[in-house]
Design brief:
The chain is an alpha/beta fold. Helices cover 40% and strands 15% of the residues.
Length: 371
């Protein structure tokens, strides 16, 4: 089948790009349509891909500051017609599901999240540091984007959600059903150690909505050793509230991450995330996770088996979980076994089966309707 991949933007690297890399590996002959592409920012391997951008890619400074152009994205994507393809697989958290196609094209949307800037404006305002005046100015624009986003979602033939949290949001915001296929995690990078050290670990971008402040304050209050890996604009604020038991590591390279995770007492995941790959990585390294009981952690952290969940996003709630935590309760082999359920190989098998099966059913329905 003639298949195209669609991705929102290629000017930053995160979980969405991890998914895209696996999809490109599955469909190496398929072009990747995206709004913008900054080759100097993205991994060199991407230059070997057939990447096709929209007209918006030529706007001034959009590669480094794409947020001000968000209102233009619906027009850009709405002008793209992919009717020449039999299947289009969109990897979406923004607006890329809004391209046009005819009734002979099957559109499968792997939904990382319903468009966050539209349906989660308050969280976006907090995450991007937008002031109250800016937020007020955005409201009429957001109302129009909601109408466009909902209409675009109705043209999708089949939705796949990355977690039960996202499945619920697809139902709430788009009034659509979906199946769940968890994002791929490269578990082979992580190897359990025979023994662990006494430190707790956080690895994250240091931005406010990640709630790393909860981990810093809780470990400071209890006098527990905490290593914080990552960089971000929240670094100075976190340093100010940290006590002597908290160590900031800065950026952690990939080659150091496995050993750091395998030696920690437990991995802390205090924020609310759509899925969250790092808790699965920690379990692949044989270590339990203490996470806030919401979002994707509900799919990846099994209380009493692979970690613990704290019920309120507060320092007190996390302190209670840390005080009751017993690392020896968790067997590294069992933790890794659970993590393997989210491995790259599981994702590729499930995704291939879904795309193939959905396309065959789609063709059968199209053939029957022509009779």
């Amino acid at each position: 089948m003639k298949l195209a991949l669609v991705h929102d933007w290629l000017n930053q690297r995160g979980g969405a790009e991890d998914v895209l890399e696996v999809l490109v590996g599955m469909y190496p002959d398929s072009p990747v349509y995206t709004s913008i592409y900054a080759p100097d920012i993205m991994p060199p391997a991407y230059r070997q891909w057939d990447i096709r951008t929209l007209w918006i890619d030529k706007l001034p400074a959009i590669h480094t500051h794409h947020q001000p152009y968000l209102p233009a994205y619906p027009a850009a994507w709405g002008g793209l017609d992919l009717s020449d393809y039999q299947v289009v697989l969109s990897n979406k958290s923004g607006f890329c599901h809004g391209f046009r196609h005819n009734s002979d094209t099957l559109h499968i949307c792997y939904c990382l999240a319903p468009t966050r800037y539209v349906w989660g404006l308050d969280a976006y305002v907090q995450r991007e540091g937008i002031g109250s005046i800016g937020a007020l100015a955005l409201k009429p624009i957001i109302a129009a984007l909601k109408r466009w986003d909902y209409a675009a979602a109705q043209r999708v033939n089949a939705f796949i959600a990355i977690s039960t949290e996202i499945q619920a949001r697809i139902r709430q915001y788009y009034d659509r059903d979906s199946v769940i296929i968890y994002p791929p995690v490269d578990t082979a990078r992580f190897v359990p150690h025979e023994a662990h050290d006494d430190y707790y670990l956080v690895v994250s971008r240091l931005i406010p909505y990640k709630r790393i402040d909860l981990a810093v304050q809780a470990c400071t209050r209890l006098g527990l050793p905490l290593k914080v890996g990552g960089k971000g604009r929240d670094m100075d604020r976190l340093r100010e509230m940290a006590g002597p038991t908290v160590e900031f590591l800065g950026y952690v390279p990939d080659e150091a991450l496995s050993g750091l995770m395998a030696r920690c007492k437990a991995f802390l995941f205090p924020g609310l995330e759509d899925f969250g790959i790092t808790p699965v990585q920690a379990q692949a390294a044989g270590r339990p996770v203490i996470a806030y009981g919401g979002g994707g952690a509900l799919d990846t952290v099994l209380p009493g088996r692979t970690g613990e969940l704290f019920s309120e996003m507060t320092v007190d709630s996390l302190c209670a979980a840390l005080s009751a935590f017993e690392a020896e309760h968790y067997a590294p082999s069992a933790l890794r076994e659970h993590a393997l359920k989210f491995d790259n190989a599981v994702f590729t098998q499930q995704m291939d089966a879904f795309v193939t099966g959905t396309y065959e059913a789609f063709r059968a329905r199209r053939g029957a309707s022509a009779l």
